[in-house]
Amino acid sequence: MLARGAAVRGGGLLRRAGAPGRGLRTSPAARGGMPSWVIDRYGRNEVLRFARNMALPAIRFPNEVVIKVHAASLNPIDLSMRSGYGATALNMKRDPLKLNSEENEFPLTLGRDVSGVVMECGLSVSYFKPGDEVSFKPKCLSHTEAASLPYVGLTAWSAINKVGGLNQKNCGGKRLLILGASGGVGTFAVQLGKAWGAHVTAVCSSDASTLMKELGADDVIDYKSGNLEEQLKILPLFDFILDNVGGATEKWALDLLKKWSGATYVTLVTPFLINMDRLGVADGMLQTGVTIGSKTLKHLCKGVHYRWAFFMPSGPCLDEIAELVNSGKIQPVIDQVFSFSEVPKAFLKLEGGHARGKTVINVINKK
Ligand SMILES: NC(=O)c1ccc[n+]([C@@H]2O[C@H](COP(=O)([O-])OP(=O)(O)OC[C@H]3O[C@@H](n4cnc5c(N)ncnc54)[C@H](OP(=O)(O)O)[C@@H]3O)[C@@H](O)[C@H]2O)c1
Questions:
Q1: Both 38 and 135 in a single domain?
Q2: What domain count does the chain have?
Q3: For ligand 1, which residues put their CB under 6 angstroms from it?
Q4: Residue with CA closest to ligand 1 atom 48
Q5: pTM of the entire predicted model
Q6: What is the pLDDT of residues 194-230, one digit of tens each?
Q7: Mean pLDDT (whole number) for 305-333
Q8: 184 lies in which domain range?
């Protein structure tokens, strides 16, 4: 399986990239095919179809690379997209003028998180060359392990660093609370907090508490053993909260923050794409702006910051993550590995919930 990606420095991200520029080159006309799992309509797991001979991706913009995918990992967004979530935004990005939206929409290949080898580079790509293992893969990791890191790593980085303002220099001794600590993003966030010297409180189910301790969490709270709010209220106040759970949590979680000290609550569970799917692009964005604006203001008046965070592609951040992995401060946390023929099983596993780290697919079988 090959994937086309924008060449983000240090990256290898699956992102159709920017505007066409000078140096556009087309790929060779005579190209073979590749096996791929695709969907031809949105729905439940039965929409996944194995296509033996999909066209190979061609480089369309000079900053793109083609990657031979060795391993890929699944994220909750892949499940949601299988069911049509985010289709409005995706179609707008794919076909802004809506010229051919139906023709372009399917077959759709799901997935975004890969580790592999660069096969071909666009003319403006200088950071990568054919044969490089991306996302400049930490040398100590297999492709299977490396594929588990980019999406959750960059999402946690975006929430804690870009939005939350924490970094290696100012994080020492700060009190971090991670809600939903046992999943893909949570297991990375706990380790990042510890790598930067914070005191980390992890909230998870009891069967994940040993894993949390192994990852370095200082306090572990079982959200199923009694009222979570009451359990957390008796602890000292926090400087930062990362919410990977959403829902009713945000009604009380901000009361756990230190007041008037720059303390911040960041949630990853936002209605951004749902609003666009439900209301269309313009009204959806308007609704989103009103919601985030009013919540931010309400909490600012009470002395705390309320923020939303999103996955953010960044080559330099991937390089920093690779350094933390190479120095042993962050390790991949893999729940289960599936072969390429077992992709539907992997989706079902993710759909069952209760992730303990990541679900990974070995595309090139080297279990
Ligand atoms: N905004 C963005 O760009 C962005 C990017 C990535 C992820 N996300 C969102 O962030 C969330 C987390 O993503 P993920 O990849 O980490 O998901 P995940 O791997 O599926 O993990 C979710 C974890 O939360 C635990 N959990 C469920 N209910 C909980 C609760 N009430 N309290 C504490 N833990 C609970 C689950 O285990 P148990 O049920 O066994 O406790 C599981 O370990 C998802 O909603 C995802 O869609 C958003």
A1: yes
A2: 2
A3: 75-77, 152, 155, 179-180, 182-186, 203-205, 223, 244-245, 268-270, 310-311, 353-355
A4: 268
A5: 0.93
A6: 999 999 999 999 999 999 999 999 999 999 999 999 9
A7: 97
A8: 152-308
Ligand 1 pocket: which of 210, 232, 245, 276 to mutate (most atoms <8 Å of CB)? Answer: 245
110/177 same-domain check:
no
33 lies in the same domain as 119: yes
In a shared domain, residues 295 and 353: no
| Tens of pLDDT, residues 79-118 | 999 999 888 887 777 766 665 556 678 999 999 999 999 9
In a domain, 185, yes or no: yes
| Helices within the chain (DSSP H only) | 76-82, 87-94, 101-105, 143-146, 150-157, 184-195, 209-214, 228-233, 249-252, 272-279, 281-300, 315-326, 343-351
**CA nearest ligand 1 atom 3, residue:** 310
- The reply to whether 71 and 90 lie within a common domain is yes
Q: Are 358 and 111 within 8 A, CB to CB?
A: no
Task: State in Å: Cα 27 to ligand 1 middle.
Answer: 39
Q: Are residues 133 and 201 in the same domain?
A: no
Reported as a single tens digit per residue, the pLDDT across 16-39 is 222 223 333 444 445 678 999 999
Grouping H, G, I as helix, E, B as strand and the rest as coil, residue 15 is coil
Q: How far apart are CA 276 and CA 278, in angstroms?
A: 5
Q: Which atom from ligand 1 is nearest to the alpha carbon of 358?
A: 19
